[in-house]
Write a structure and sequence with these properties.
mainly alpha, 5 helices, about 5% strand
Length: about 110
């Protein structure tokens, strides 16, 4: 889920959110203060799911008003076949969790604009 949010936020969501929160609260950070990490660890058992999710970056469905709806599942199935994914059911479950996290991040970005 964190990987999807990170991706949907252009890779810098946490640091930017932290900076925005501090500014909104009027908090001045001391000189040399280290921003939160803009990367994260992917556990070995989640690596395949994250890599497949990232390979689906051209498979997002966009609504008439420009909003992100979700992944094109026909495209997901094609990627599964092309990459010869064997454990499709479990991987699909992981992708849906990541999809929901990314859609939420996209919606939050739209609301800020």
């Amino acid at each position: 889920m964190e990987a999807a949010q990170w991706w949907a936020n252009g890779g810098s969501g946490k640091a930017q959110q932290f900076s925005d929160d501090c500014a909104a609260l009027g908090i001045e950070l001391p000189a040399g203060f280290a921003q939160p990490e803009t990367c994260f660890k992917v556990e070995a058992e989640n690596w395949e799911s994250v890599m497949v999710f990232l390979s689906l970056d051209t498979q997002w469905q966009i609504g008439a008003m420009g909003e992100v709806i979700g992944l094109n599942y026909a495209g997901v199935e094609s990627v599964f076949r092309i990459k010869r994914i064997k454990n499709r059911e479990a991987l699909f479950d992981d992708l849906q969790i990541m999809e929901r996290a990314a859609v939420t991040a996209f919606r939050e970005q739209r609301q800020k604009k």
